Amino acid sequence: MIQYAFPKNFWWGAASSGPQTEGFFNKAHLNLMDYWFKKEPEVFFNRVGPDRASEFFTRYDEDLKLIKSIGLNSFRTSIQWTRLIDDFETGKVNKEGAAFYNKLIDAFLKHGVLPVINLYHFDMPLELFQKYGGWSGEKTVDLFVLFARAAFKLFGDRVKYWTVINEPMVQPEAGWLYGFHYPNYKGKGAEAVQIMHNLALASAKTIRAFREENIKGGEIGVILNLTPAYTASDSDEDKKAGAFADDFFNNSFLDPACAGVFPPALVETLKKDGVLWKAQDGENEIFQSGKVDFLGVNYYHPKRVAARKSPLPQELRSEWTPDVYFEEYDWPQKRINPYRGWEIYPKAMYDIAINIKNKYPGLPWYVSENGMGVEGEERFMDENGVIQDDYRIDFYKEHLIYLHKAIEEGSKCFGFHAWTAFDCWSWNNAYKNRYGYISVDLESQKRTIKKSGWWIKETAKNNGF
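Below the sequence we write its predicted structure tokens.
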């Protein structure tokens, strides 16, 4: 008996990215992660970098066949800016890069897997970072639109679902605020704020360009990682801290993408603090006409906050930082994934879904990533070489139950994509934590379906569980 049935034509799929599966094989240019690995390979877990990735560049046909075999009807990956474009200033296309993506998209269609194509997944060209400061420079925004137009023209006849940027908040957060992605800056809040603005503007300009290309039957959205802020108490101070954290980390991208405006309270605070971004002329109209057709939501963990009572960490004291308005709160009842250090809180899936329903009535959206990374999964391998990852099945079931409840209450969710289909490289964590429905042996590159892969096949077949 199916207790949790999902809507007709629901997307049961998975997500990954070009940099994390293709790596830098045969690319025209390096991105920042490629460069970081070449510069400091010791920073990457077991010194495994994008030179190895998951060999999707050569194994994509086999991988898509496997994805289809476990019942997935859709898959998101990304086009690497550094692979498709030869000349960033003109948007001139690299012939080998275009040929690869043409073959890849044709393989999607051959295997009956819906391609959902993302344009930017942390693939900042090294040259544009060195020349224009990457996303901190206005010029990068317009060069990105050139790249996007090239992709639309080349592949828009076959790709009908596009997303502009994956997890835009990670770029300023990881690279400029807290220093865990290259260029590893900390506390550079003013520059981080400008990057946030420029990413949102790039999304709006790209969506306008997409509509100008008039792709028949095409839709375009953005992928946002949402970390709802739950407060330590109901005090006015804590609620104010929670509201700021939600505006800064979530609504700063949600509102421009879905409503065409930035959160007024956030704008007011940043202006008061003297760190409001530099805006472009006429951009209000750009944001209003560059709203998404649909939204993708990556959810892994919540954010627990309280009003700041302790001093700022030393590394954040040199410049403005959003942390002046909140501090992390250690919730005593938390469940933690010990491998990733993230809290497991499935109810937030419901809260996110209802928030989207209430704030943006009628907006279609889907879960574009949700997953559980575990280190040393070979411990759970049976005598047949199959990883018995019941913990992952339980994780997905818990989140899907809350998602189902929200759909029953009117939230317009049309799909669920896991991170990820097959184990892939994950930036400086490399293969430390595995997420896939399908395991990848790094030495042999052999693929083996995990127990969760068989579970999702049955779930997709029944459109529920």
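Residues 31 and 125 are 4 Å apart (CA to CA).
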